[in-house]
Amino acid sequence: MKGYIFDMDGTLLDSIKAWHNIGNRYLESLGLDTDPDLDDKLAHLELLEGAEYMNNQFHLNKTNEEIVKDIKNIIKDKYEHEILLKEGVKDFLQKCQDSHYKMCVLTASDSSLAKKAFQRLGILKYFDDVYACYEICLTKTNPQSYIEVAKRMGLKPTECIIVEDALYAIKTAKKAGFYVKAIYDKFNDNDWETIKDIADESYYTFKDMKI
């Protein structure tokens, strides 16, 4: 193995709570009625996809790009000032760097938010690049998303390890032919037993994860 591709939210960062009910918070900011099932409907969508869904569903009369910008403005303060690393992340990244692994991030969120948080938390230096799904025009429901990032790293899927917390993304990475390490997040607690069955390795914290 020569490289790692890390997820961000719920994997490197303890940030899932920051996104909780973000769709309804946005609707409320526009003075619109909310949808109690909206979180579930947006859960597997990256930002631009989520914006498109909300635009179509709630007739927002905005461009999808404007909606993404609005949502980023709602949540950016948490990435800039509040969100913390998951336990053991920095030490694990340092061990990977010491062992000369290439490292990148693929996030369904926004790469600018990621870089601001990573810079504040002292881990941006470990990554060759930080990719958002919308930047490579592929979502984590498509196996090609991971293959494309590995290609940009100069690696084959068989040379790269994926670290994810979400069941759907772990399924996709396995389908793409990658070795997958799962990290626990309390927001995926209901899926944890299934995740352990599918992933090649599973850990509750990065403190326990083997390089």
Structure description:
- With 211 residues, the protein is an alpha/beta fold.
- 46% of the residues lie in helices and 13% in strands.
- The chain is built from 11 helices and 6 strands.
- A 6-stranded parallel sheet has the order 3-2-1-4-5-6, with helices on both faces.
- The chain is globular.
- It starts with a strand and ends in an 8-residue tail after the last strand.
- The mean pLDDT is 94.
Q: Topology of this structure?
A:
Elements: E1 3-6, H1 16-19, H2 22-29, H3 38-42, H4 47-58, H5 64-81, H6 89-98, E2 102-107, H7 111-121, E3 129-132, H8 133-136, H9 144-152, E4 160-164, H10 167-175, E5 179-183, H11 192-198, E6 201-203
Parallel strand pairs: 1-2, 1-4, 2-3, 4-5, 5-6
Structural class based on helices, strands and sheet pairing: alpha/beta
Largest sheet: 6 strands, parallel
The oligomeric state is: single chain
Radius of gyration, whole Å: 17 Å
Ranges where pLDDT stays below 50 over 5 or more residues in a row are none
Number of strands: 6
Strand content: 5-15%
Report how far apart the termini are: 10 Å
Name the average pLDDT: 94
Biggest sheet, spatial arrangement of strands: 3-2-1-4-5-6
Order of helices and strands: EHHHHHHEHEHHEHEHE
Helix content: 40-55%
Q: Number of helical segments?
A: 11
Gross morphology:
globular
